[in-house]
């Protein structure tokens, strides 16, 4: 899987990879950049280092990437190599759904605040 994705399309692609239980190497390169972010996928989840701090850093990387106007996506499937040791994973489909729901909740909350701001 390869391609250039516009704003809002990366989160869809991540959701699909999660739902398909994809395993392999995912590289996401911001438009105009030479260096991309590399993720190891195992059965639809991103493999992370041990600890909550590493998990939070991964989520922040994903949030930053899906907010960009354009990215190049390259997925090399079928690669089963992954870091040795305990497996800590962030499921992509679950993360993508939560991310989209949070955006909707924030949008509705902002609209409600604007509406209530006019009420005395």
Unreliable residue runs: none
H/E element sequence = EHEEEHEEH
Fraction in beta strands: 25-35%
Number of strands: 6
Shape: globular
Compose a concise summary of this entry.
By secondary structure, this protein is of the alpha+beta class.
Walkthrough of the structure:
This protein is an alpha+beta fold and 120 residues long. The chain has helices at 9-19, 52-66, 92-117; strands spanning 2-6, 24-30, 37-42, 45-48, 70-77, 88-91. The protein has a six-stranded antiparallel β-sheet with strand order 1-5-2-3-4-6. Helix 1 (9-19) packs across helix 3. The longest helix is centred in the last third of the chain and has 26 residues, at 92-117. The radius of gyration is 17 Å and the shape is globular. The mean pLDDT is 83.
Which properties best describe this structure?
120 residues, alpha+beta, 3 helices, 6 strands
Topology diagram in text:
Layout: E1 2-6, H1 9-19, E2 24-30, E3 37-42, E4 45-48, H2 52-66, E5 70-77, E6 88-91, H3 92-117
Antiparallel strand pairs: 1-5, 2-3, 2-5, 3-4, 4-6
